[in-house]
Amino acid sequence: MRFILLGPPGAGKGTQAAVIKDKYSIAHVSTGDILRENVKKGTSLGQEAKSFMDSGKLVPDQLIIAMVRDRLKDMDCAKGFLLDGFPRTVSQAEALDHLISNLGVNLDAVILLDVPDDVVIERLSGRRICRRCGTIFHVNFNPSADGSLCDRCGGEIYQRDDDREEVIRNRLKVYYEQTSPLIEYYEKKSLLKKVDASESSDTVLTMIESLVSR
Ligand code: ADP
Ligand code: ZN
What are the residues facing 6 on neighbouring strands? Predict the structure, then answer.
């Protein structure tokens, strides 16, 4: 199984991917997670990417494409993969076409998680994440019992720098300008399938599963 989760920030791509990768034993390839890991470790990629990320801008295509090329070669991707946050531009999508054909495999589907802007802003501005295990909380919809520590592992809970409201608005603008053209790109390849992502995450999961396991 090889597919892409497409959609605006806050559509729930990361939340769904975390469940799906375990259930189907496929690799979860999140360019955002790989970048944040590099920032945390202070690698040269991380240093280059940080200012783009903090302002909600896209990291340059060449950096991202090289990163994904390496990641798809990893052993765990052989059984299948779920791309989350990539591709985000038409050039990235074209590069992905090449990477995939070089690997001798095919994409099964591109799932568009469709959600209105006001829902995105509400979800992201309240989002909090455990620094240690990555569990995602929400200050209103899914708070941790303690508020500042993770229910699962006791780690510290934090807010991503780019989850502040002014940055969220910029990320949305970037999505509409640079990423939404991919909807048409994949429609033309007859790969696009749309899901209403303003539903509960359980409902969204069921809809995704019915689309990919057909
Ligand atoms: P979101 O919650 O906005 O989907 P991600 O965790 O996927 O966020 O990405 C966070 C930031 O990392 C983006 O705002 C962008 O700066 C950078 N980034 C992640 N993936 C890509 C990509 N495919 N192309 C360019 N920049 C990316
Ligand atoms: Zn935790």
Answer: 112
Ligand 1 pocket residue status of 59, Cβ below 6 Å:
yes
Domains of the chain, residue spans = 2-212
State pLDDT tens for residues 54-78.
Answer: 888 999 999 999 999 999 999 999 9
Q: Does domain 2-212 have CATH number 3.40.920.10?
A: no
Instruction: Give the mutation target among 58, 65, 123, 169 for probing the ligand 1 site: most ligand atoms within 8 A of CB.
Output: 58
* Cβ partners under 8 Å of residue 58, min gap 6: 52, 64, 88, 89, 174, 178
List, edge to edge, every strand of the sheet that includes 136-138: 136-138, 127-130, 157-158
Whether the per-residue pLDDT at 214 is higher than 70: the answer is no
pTM (two decimals)? 0.89
Tell whether ligand 1 has an atom less than 6 A from the beta carbon of residue 9.
yes
How far away, in angstroms, is 181 Cα from ligand 2 center? 36
Mean pLDDT of 34-45: 95
